[in-house]
């Protein structure tokens, strides 16, 4: 993470400057379309209002929800009027026609959250929205979304399928980049709606349909991620909204993919790994760019060191700023470690299913054993021993999984070293414990990949030395044991690590918000 080139394969809009979208270019649009664009912008602002967020968190449909609904209805009416004008007049450009289609698609994709649409009717509303997104793309001659398995990856650079891969998408206007992200959101929401029952609000998973929908949602999100914004776009029109939407989509894709049951089918794991890699890339790069901002600020401050007449007081101030920056980088390193640990565990389950004959994931087995520790009997022990008799092969997937987990451990160790630079406090102790437990959990996962290969035997001996240190340090800190905390919510992580970087709406609470609106429950 100390290196600054890890995000180089992501050309996106994640690095776009934040700020409200301007309407300067809209002034050149025909009057009806200009009004439509303004209404869409107002509706988008209403959807992101903190007051609406608080209202929905309370499970109520109050005045802010009504305002959002009315704003979206106004967009639909204006868009339908613009469409009528386009049909009656042959003088509308394809780009203007497409922009109107986007405004209508946007409103249709969101209005179901506020107008009383039932979970059973939501998919049809979303399909209608997706048809308008597609028509806008056709008018703009946008390319098809790339195949996700061939996309370069920052979290899996050693994947043979991705080495040498490239995504060459033409640059687009800022509003088109925003449209691509919203299109991916609508596609992801359709996947979400597919797991809600017709009447009783319980989660129902139709495996083939969910997998197909997630495939397309992921491809759409990849397209939104990798489509660059035209460099001639006025700076005032640049917005971080597209990046925030892409990140929110990735989180929902992650949660929905976890609903698919464990399988030994290679095609199942090919898809799961592709989705997981995309999700990990988005989250990893977001943390990298946040950390890079801190590094840039510290580097600028340290320029004073080049002055030969620098005073001791100024030198001490630079040292203080650099040390503070290193401490502030620690949460982002921990976030990156969490991302790689999560990805490594998905890959580890793939190894277990494809090469070790396992019928459940490693973490599921651990949780099952923890939940039934009092009744864990001889038969279970025999089954566990039988499972351990399967030798771990040394192949591309095993090696790559091992490297991902080793990188996760290195990031946790970097974060731990940064935390040790901070003054002693109860908060520092809490963070130390958390990082040491994450390291311990990562080493436990690596143990599942041990075999008799000389290189792996050497790595195991090094890991044991580190594990002894971790155990001693945990004892010194008074650790009483407990979970590895991997189950802590992303919202909690966002509050602790990168609250200033998260959008109001595009956090893990997006899933809960959608569930409240459509299913009145959280997906489990």
Automatic annotation (TrEMBL):
Positions of the UniProt region annotated as Disordered: 365-396, 479-524
Bias type Basic and acidic residues, positions: 386-396
Biased composition (Acidic residues): 481-512
The name this protein goes by in its record: Proteophosphoglycan ppg4
């Amino acid at each position: 993470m100390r290196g600054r080139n890890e995000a180089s394969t992501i050309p996106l809009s994640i690095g776009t400057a934040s700020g409200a979208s301007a309407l300067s270019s809209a002034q050149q649009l025909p009057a009806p379309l200009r009004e439509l664009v303004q209404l869409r912008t107002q509706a988008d602002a209403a959807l992101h209002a903190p007051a609406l967020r608080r209202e929905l968190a309370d499970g109520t449909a109050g005045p802010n929800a009504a305002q959002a609904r009315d704003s979206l209805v106004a967009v639909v009416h204006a868009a339908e009027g613009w469409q009528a004008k386009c049909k009656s007049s042959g003088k509308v450009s394809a780009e203007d026609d497409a922009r109107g289609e986007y405004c209508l698609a946007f409103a249709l994709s969101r209005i179901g959250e506020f107008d009383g649409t039932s979970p059973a009717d939501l998919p049809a509303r979303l399909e209608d929205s997706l048809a308008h997104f597609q028509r806008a793309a056709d008018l703009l001659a946008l390319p098809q979304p790339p195949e996700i398995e061939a996309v370069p990856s920052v979290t899996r650079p050693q994947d043979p399928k991705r080495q040498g891969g490239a995504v060459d998408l033409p640059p687009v206007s800022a509003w088109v980049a925003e449209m691509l992200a919203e299109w991916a959101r609508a596609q992801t929401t359709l996947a979400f709606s597919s797991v809600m029952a017709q009447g009783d609000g319980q989660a129902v998973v139709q495996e083939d349909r969910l997998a197909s929908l997630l495939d397309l949602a992921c491809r759409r999100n990849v397209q939104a991620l990798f489509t660059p914004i035209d460099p001639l776009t006025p700076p005032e029109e640049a917005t971080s909204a597209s990046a925030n939407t892409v990140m929110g989509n990735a989180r929902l894709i992650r949660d929905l993919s976890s609903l698919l049951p464990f399988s030994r089918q290679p095609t199942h794991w090919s898809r799961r790994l592709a989705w997981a890699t995309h999700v990990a890339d988005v989250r990893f790069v977001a943390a990298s760019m946040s950390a890079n901002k801190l590094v840039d600020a510290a580097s600028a401050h340290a320029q004073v060191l080049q002055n030969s007449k620098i005073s001791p007081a100024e030198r001490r101030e630079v040292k203080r700023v650099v040390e503070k920056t290193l401490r502030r980088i620690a949460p982002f390193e921990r976030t990156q470690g969490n991302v790689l640990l999560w990805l490594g565990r998905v890959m580890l389950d793939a190894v277990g299913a494809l090469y070790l004959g396992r019928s459940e994931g490693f973490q599921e087995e651990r949780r099952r054993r923890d939940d039934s520790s009092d009744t864990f009997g001889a038969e279970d022990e025999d089954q566990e021993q039988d499972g351990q008799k399967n030798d771990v092969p040394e192949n591309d997937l095993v090696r790559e999984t091992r490297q991902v987990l080793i990188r996760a451990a290195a990031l946790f160790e970097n974060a731990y070293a940064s935390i040790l630079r901070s003054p002693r406090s109860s908060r520092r102790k809490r963070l130390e414990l958390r990082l040491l437990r994450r390291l311990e959990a990562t080493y436990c996962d690596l143990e599942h990949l041990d075999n008799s290969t000389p290189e792996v035997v050497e790595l195991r001996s090094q890991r044991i030395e580190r594990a002894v240190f971790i155990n001693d340090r945990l004892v010194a800190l008074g650790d009483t044991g407990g979970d590895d905390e991997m189950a802590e919510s992303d919202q909690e992580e966002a509050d602790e690590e990168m609250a200033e970087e998260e959008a109001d709406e595009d956090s893990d609470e997006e899933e809960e918000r959608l569930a409240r609106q459509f299913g009145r429950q959280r997906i489990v």
